[in-house]
Amino acid sequence: MTQKQITAIAQQAQEKWDLSGIRIIHRVGRLRPQDMIVMVAASSAHRTASLEAVHYMMDYLKTDAPFWKAEETDNGLSWVEARAADDVAKKKWRS
What we know:
This protein is of the alpha+beta class. The longest helix is centred in the middle third of the chain and has 18 residues. Helices cover 43% and strands 24% of the residues.
């Protein structure tokens, strides 16, 4: 399900901008603090298109891709809730 949504987000970016390539890597499994989790890249003939596409894809990954994130602390395991700021960031792309 997650891979399907990541692919859909990449396709949406491709439709919005003239991109020659897209790469999204999102790690899964147990990660430690400071581990690299996600890489989003886009290539295009013009930097504005690729930079905007990367921002767009990252904003949509944070809100639309179904990742279930658990956090382990000294107090036990808890599930990480979605952030309101991520929804605000995504809204700027609706036009």
